[in-house]
Amino acid sequence: MSTIDTPADPAPDATGPAFELPAELAIETGVARRLIVDFIRAQLRQAGFERLVLGLSGGIDSALVAYLAAEAIGPEQLLCILMPYRTSSRDSVTDAETVVADLGCPSELVDISPMVDAWFEQPANQDASALRRGNLMARTRMMVLYDRSVTWRGLVIGTGNKTETLIGYTTIFGDSACALAPIADLYKTQVRQLSLAVGVPETIVRKAPSADLWPGQTDESEVGFSYALIDRILFRLIDRRRTIDEVVAEGFERAMVERVDRMVAGAEFKRQMPPIAKVGPRTAGVDYLYPRRRPRASAS
Amino acid sequence: MPPIRVALAQVAPRLGDLAANLERHTELLEEARAEGSDLVVFPELGLTGYWLQDLNSEVAMRLDDPRLVALAARTRGISAVVSFVEESDDHRLFIAAALLEDGAIRHVHRKLYLPTYGLFDERRFFAAGSVLRATDSRLGVRLGISVCEDWWHLSVANLLALDGAQVLINVSSSPGRDVAVGHREGLGTAASWRSLNRTYAQLTTSYVVFVNRVGVDESFSFWGGSEVVGPSGGSVFQAPLHEDGLFHAVIDPAELRHERIANPLLRDERPEVMLRQLDRIARARAGDTDDEDDR
Question: What is the CATH number of the domain that holds B81?
């Protein structure tokens, strides 16, 4: 496999390359950074807001968004909220605190354990699966962010990346809920590349990505293969519009390609607004199509 | 003939806010005049913003709209190319680019090719123009005006040049995309447009003036990078990517004359050959008989 930064092995070896970057996924980080920073500013201006609120987990995605948002609007306008659950890794909070200290942005620590536990302590919910628990945690964080967005007078900025959005490794109305999604067209490997370019601490770039829903969980062990490999397959299926057979002909394992394809297809609903039953003459999102914000007739 | 000073208005229109955009156009028109420009060129839909969707009819102007007439009235002693949604008498909505000069609307080009693929959805919201004409101007050169996607169809530059255009003006709202390593200027879209502009300038031995907007509409970031290419294909001026501003370049009619005499490609064009073949091809594509032996 051809790589840019050397990397053969994403092992957390402090002297080795930070991550594996397949050549076809390498991006011009200067241009990407400019596009995204301008995008954040423009979305705020159009919506009539000056501030942002962000859920900062200690992972790479929210760290990258924090750096880009701080660059776009200044750190004092960005509120970072750390929302650990009692089983969250202590390192996550430490890493998030490092980002906050480095950027100099306001932050809050909200322990979501009482809110989440209140639900799962109910007799009917005590045997809830890890998936249900993880989803409720994600949705609890969403509630906190949207409630604080009112008092902070800021928009909720999303932290989803293209890989998880495509394979559906996300909680609908949970971590996917946001007012703007600045990095959702960057694959995980590209998130890593841009993160290094904008100064996200290398410890965060190097550590194994994790939803941190239970101790020791990592994305790659849960999904079963590496982000570099998923990204290479997604890039071919989605961006290059290649068929499964064509991707297999390039040397990728068929079972893997088919599995990625199934994950993408199965998550289509997560990427779209719910369908409205068409009854009237003009229906939102169907044949009533407007930009998200537009000049309004003056109130006078 | 003296050089023509061109101002490239690489602006970021406010989406759907005609009043704000008219004000900005007026400011830049006056700034260009104050700096001695002969021609100021604004980008595609500079008066309205690009991703209008159902706002299309709300921002549309007829050619006798008082706001457009007032803008045209400011062009005494200067020429301007501006772009907006034009509503025709029969209420079709066009993406239009107009040449304003000497206080009046001198020429209107209605976008011929409306991309409705990939990220584009123009045909849903707009009617396609069906006329392509070069136009005389007070600048002493003939202009060929086109809008964005028109440039992705080979015939447009050729027809405008054959119709006498010496300066080909393309106004665009080109969304930037593809930041893969390896593209010139770091952006796939920019690299593609540079090739087009250079190729058309060289093949038609004309100046190419390309003005692309900046700013963001919804998901799309427009990359700017407006430029002027000389009649031999050499770069005359390139504005920076993504920067809002009024940029200046000079077109030298003497350079055009030199190039066309040294490199008489236009002289040797064979429109009658093209016409006969196009007639045959159009009939074949329409399902009529193919005249294989028409040689």
Answer: 3.60.110.10
Q: Supply the angle between the helices A188-198 and A29-47 in degrees, to the nearest 10.
A: 90
Name the residue ranges covered by the structural domains of chain A: 24-213
Q: Distance from CA of residue A161 to its chain's centroid?
A: 4
- What are the helix (H) ranges across chain A? 29-47, 60-73, 90-103, 113-120, 130-152, 162-167, 188-198, 202-206, 219-223, 227-234, 244-249, 254-266
Q: Do B55 and A290 touch (CB under 8 A)?
A: yes
pLDDT tens digits along A95-106: 999 999 999 999
CB contact under 8 Å between A38 and B221, yes or no, is yes
User: Rounded mean pLDDT of A122-136?
Assistant: 95
Q: What is the mean pLDDT of chain A?
A: 91
Which residue in the set A30, A291, A292 is minimally distant from B186, CB to CB?
Answer: A30
State whether B73 and B185 are in the same domain: yes
- pLDDT reported for residue B290: 57
Nearest CA-CA partner of A179 in A53, A267, A37: A53
If you measure CA to CA, which chain A residue comes closest to B182? A28
Question: Is the domain of B292 the same as that of B203?
Answer: no
**Residues of B in Cβ contact (< 8 Å) with A241:** none
Give how many domains chain B has, as a whole number.
Answer: 2
Task: Please tell me whether residues B32 and B47 are part of one structural domain.
Answer: yes
Cα–Cα distance, A76 to A84 (Å, whole number): 23
Nearest to B216 among A23, A31, A42 (CB): A42
Nearest Cα of chain A lies from the Cα of B169 at a distance, in angstroms, of 26
Q: CA A132, CA A112: separation in Å to the nearest integer?
A: 15
Shortest alpha-carbon distance between residue A105 and chain B (Å)? 26
The continuous run of DSSP H or E covering B82 comes out as strand B79-87
pLDDT confidence of residue B291: 56
The domain defined by A24-213 carries CATH number 3.30.470.20: no
B189 and B274 fall within a common domain? no
Point out the residues of chain B with pLDDT beneath 70: 289-295
Rounded to the nearest angstrom, the minimum Cα separation between B105 and chain A is 28
Tell me if B66 sits within 8 A of B104, measured CB to CB. no
Full residue range of the structural domain in which residue B171 is found = 4-262
CA distance linking residue A220 with residue A224, whole number of Å: 6
CB contact under 8 A, A289 and B17: no
ipTM: 0.91
Interface of A with B in 18-77 (CB under 8 A): 23-28, 30-32, 34-35, 38-39, 42-43, 46
Residues B41, B10 share a domain: yes
Same domain assignment for residues B178 and B286: no
Tokens of A125: 């919910």
In terms of domains, do B90 and B144 share one?
Answer: yes
Same domain, B213 and B70: yes
Residues A96, A102: Cα–Cα separation, whole Å: 10
Indicate whether A6 pLDDT > 80.
no
**A chain contacts of residue B15, beta-carbon cutoff 8 Å:** 46, 291, 293-294
* The pLDDT value given to residue A265: 97
